[in-house]
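Quick question: what would this complex look like in 3D?
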Amino acid sequence: MQQEGRVTRAGALNAGKLMRTYGTVLAGILIVIAFGLLSPESFATWENVINISRQISLLVIIALGATLVTAVGEFDLSVGAMASLGGVIAAQMAVSGMPIWLCMTAPLLIAFVIGYLNGWIVTRFRVLSFITTMAMGTVLGGLTFWLTGGSTVFEHIPDAFRRLGQSDWLGIPLLSVIMIVLTVLFWFVMSHTPFGRRLYAIGGNETASRMAGVNVSWNKNMAFALCAVLAALTGVLMASRLGSAHPTSGGGLFLPAYAAVFLGMTAFKEGVPNIWGTFVGAAIIGILANGLTILEVPTFAQDIITGCIVVAAVILQRLGRGER
Amino acid sequence: MPLLEVKNLDKKFGPFYALKHVSLTIEPGEVHALVGENGAGKSTLIKIVTGVYKPDGGAIEWQGRPVIISSPKHARELGINVIHQERQLVPSLTGLENVYLGLPYLQFPFGLGVRWKAMRERAEKLKRELGMDVPLDRPAQDLSPPERTLLEILRAMMMDCRLLFLDEPTAALTDKETEMLFRLIGRLKSQGTSIIYVSHRLDEVLRLSDRITVLRNGTLAGTLPREQADRETLVRLMTNQEARAPERKGDRERHGAPVVLRARGVATADGKVKNAGLEVRKGEIVGLFGLAGAGRTELLEAIYGVRQKTAGDVWLEGQPATHLTPKQAIRRGMVLVPEDRRSHALVMGMTIRENMTLPVLSRFSNGVTIRGKRERAAVSDWMAAMKVKATGTEQTVGELSGGNQQKVVFAKALMSGPVVLLCDEPTQAVDVMTREDIHRLLRTQAEKGCGVVFVSSDLQEVLEIADRIVVMHEGETIAELPNEGLTTEKVLKICYDHRKGGKTGHAAGR
């Protein structure tokens, strides 16, 4: 009798667990089917798939970085400002005639130092990362305006600078290829290397990690540094794609990036930031934007829908856990 | 008619009795001391009478009428208050705001604002009546420790307080501050408030109380009027004379073995450890004992490098090891099994595998990736060796029982192949079987040549397992005894005889 009861409960638990782990993915698929039925001639085409992959590429890359910082239980509010600064530095270097490879990599090195500094302030002085990175974002915004005088950098940008953001490889945009490569790379880092394991351990229980001999400060600093590098790369790629760099261009990516991370926390690993979850989250946000635009839904309504979906996904997962 | 009468109170946690048939009466205006070893049931008794726990048996009568105290709020309404060991104040609020915390504010009609002036006058009046000297306009965080204690007592007295529990009130006080507190207790008593005074400091108890109740292992060992009580009697009552510690065998003599861990003159920044040291030989189990607040956990943490040291030296296998991080400690063969499993030892959301290998991840890595197969195999082996009951290596540790979690903690510690194993209350809140398993494991480790430091609040347990016992008192190591013919009584006597600065003059009476 007792045994039987336990089996039934375990069965129910498994179904619930399946919903909690894959519910978000399922919702994403449903959204795709809905758009496909509503607008078969423009949404469900190969061209549009390629299009969506390009549209979400920048969001995915910046959100990957935010995933690392969220995994160690911290926040980086400076990713948007970091992206803007990265794009502006790259564009200005290109305008001044420096080699393109240097224009693309120098901002990443600078970002590494800035990100590490974020982490150092947080770990060394125990300042809340929320405050540290908000202040850092303000500083970076100021630097960007100082460098540009507040105007868009677009004159005299060499064609070679645009190549990365605008060309294709075997019919697939290079941006999409970079997105896929980075997603796979960071998935590997987070789930198959000691570094990734330690980041998750710190996020799970910082004190226990320290007791177990994990160098908490160093690992956190590295998470912040990598996050900043990915943000700067996003800015560089955006400048390359647009052929210009605007001092606030990255700001618009900040909220969607965290929306993707939080949506991603409801997928695959319950309540834990994870790389494929973030990818799915960014994809859902991108597909919604794309499909709703095709259906000629105004932008403000799109924002309202996206925001509601994030909250709904988190609430549904909480409810699923509560049933246990 | 007694103020409070407690009859045959029982309280069980799982299969264990925390209190068994405990009876107690408190007269109005009486100072009644409650003493006993760690875990004797003092806290449980306080929590039942103040409505935190529900008793499993027995009855409580309040002013002659049977009552069921349903919540702390209910207890306060009856007139029962506790001053806990840890201060229960909001640091950023002023004294006055803290005094009125949880009390209704005096308001102008129709809720048009708070009558701060009237509230202040009421508090000041009571303050004068009690002869207290504590500022009400400064935030609690700026007050000295005794001022905070006074503030809490003032808060308790704002409502009609008939019975006041004081739980180790002098632990953070200097002798002068203690005198001030005692004068206040005298005044409360003369107003008719009864006091239950819980303390490890027997000379204070003997000086203050009208009667003294001794608890032992959750049972009532006796209630004595002060005239019949002295230090010897109390210690004898606290220790169970019937239970003899099993003799440690002579074959565990380790005098010749090399010293694997030596600490000397250790002090910590927060003052919890003042001057402590110990020596552990290869193959030896050293029991570290002290009453609550003696600084045992803090000493281990200081040695392990997670608590900041201001003085002292540490050697590991003869090499200096004073400024280690946990990472370096583990690499050099010293590992700590922390007291608090949930918050210090395990990542609850991770799997058994991920938790176990966390300290030794680099061993399962080829420089870039984790070798999953080797990792899983090693974890499976350890789970089998430790008899961890789980669905497999991939089960989340948060889903395991307390005993099985503790086994994971031990496996994790032993995986690093330690030469020094520091264990802080490793058998706390685990079942009897696991407790036996852990004892056996510690002996095996010692026989393999590991040096073990074993901390437990259960003195009987320490005597069962240790080769040598180091006694701590208020941050200092005060004695080191080979475990030959030792009894709980002897060890406790050392703890209670050792007063700060060796002062014993207080005992002379009032």
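Answer marked as accepted. Chain B touches chain A through 30 residues (CB under 8 Å).
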